[in-house]
Amino acid sequence: MADFTDDLGPTLWIVNSVFTMVATVTVIGRLAARKVRRMAFGADDWIICIALLLNWAMFSLAARAQIHGMGKHISTLSPSQIKTFTKNLYFMQITYVPAPRP
To answer: How much is the pTM?
Structure first.
């Protein structure tokens, strides 16, 4: 039987943090390589920078959702937490598709 008091929020936060950092380091490495090779900053570079900003937005929304109950069983949340969590989840879904994932 599942324990309704389990909180997977910290685990979700760690996973989100690691992948956000991997994406950030990758984009920084890409831009640094362009600069070292003296290559022009192209449309693909602008797009990946915008996608990285969306990834950071999704990360901040996920962190906020975790504070308000993401990772916990819904029966342990207050109506206020559920309302705030679902609002954050909605906006996370909007940023999910264009955000880069390694």
So the answer is: 0.75
